[in-house]
Amino acid sequence: MKRRTFITLLGGAAAWPLASHAQQAAMPVVGFLNATSLDVWQPMVNAFRQGLQESGYVEGRNVAIGSRWAEGQYDRLPALAAELVQQKVTVIAATGTPAALAAKAATSTVPIVFTTGADPVKLGLVASLRRPGGNVTGSTQLSVEVGPKRLELARELFPGATTVALLVNPANPLAATVSKELQAVADTLGLRLHVLHASTEADFEAAFATTAQLRAAALVISTPDPWFGSHPAQLGALALRHRVPAIYQLREFAAAGGLMSYGGSIADTYHLAGVYTGRILKGEKPADLPVVQSTKVELILNLKTAKALGITVPLPLSGRADEIIE
To answer: What's the fold here for domain 21-142+266-294?
Structure first.
């Protein structure tokens, strides 16, 4: 099969000199699909490239990468996925749940390696974790599974709380499921859960302002969502400015002023996806590669923010933290 080769560097300086045109023509092509943008997702891209390199593939030397970024507009993903299929790429790296679902719908023949924080079986991406079947496999991180834990942590921090807010992206296909699951957890904890929506940067400001107006004890920022994940510093700064105790998945959020972060490592799943992509380039089939899960979970507390908000963090909670920012 003739494959059209095209080079779109994923970002950063190339570690090796670019191949000649003749070499490029013979290279396999990885189509990299993501719902966000390169400028805010560079660390994840670097992790993917590292995984590829560990499998023996270096961009520009023996593999070409064509990237497609939806820039936060999830409705663009189906067309971008179809474009990669039309380009006859060797493998599609569909990173993030929305991209993975779009790629799965676009082709049943081109190998797909996904990353997700949700259950890929429930999403319909694979038949089972041990035996994916078909043309799809990938990596997951603990995200949806630890969503209830974030709500429990908010309850532990504010034992007398009656109201908590939840921020979700309505454009994310997982939004309804996450809201329903956390509503059930809130009911068992005796909490009233206000669900707020944000799908643009302008919506972030309104969501934090609304949380403050509701006098909610805390704001739990939903995961997994690539759009939220690409703005952790902005979300953390907004939480501090609006004096909203908030908890999210990424350490960058806590470092930027968020009160707490708890969740799995997204970068680790991208690294694992890079390794799997390399193995498929070498000839292995997605159906034979079990879905691999990153089990790394971290709790980060920003005591500087806690002090600014007048919050006393219980000793049992701070004692369990993997990192304390002071």
So the answer is: Rossmann fold (3.40.50)
Please identify, in words, the CATH class of the domain defined by 147-263+297-325.
alpha beta
For residue range 255-269, what is the model confidence (pLDDT) as tens digits?
A: 999 999 998 888 889
Same CATH topology for 21-142+266-294 and 147-263+297-325: the answer is yes
Number of neighbouring beta carbons within 10 Å of residue 283: 6
Convert the pLDDT of each residue in 31-89 to its tens digit.
999 998 888 788 899 999 999 999 999 999 999 999 999 998 999 999 999 999 999 99
The model's pTM: 0.77
Residue 124 has pLDDT above 60, yes or no: yes
Name the residue ranges covered by the structural domains of the chain. 21-142+266-294, 147-263+297-325
CA distance 227 to 235: 11
Give the mean model confidence (pLDDT) for residues 271-275: 96
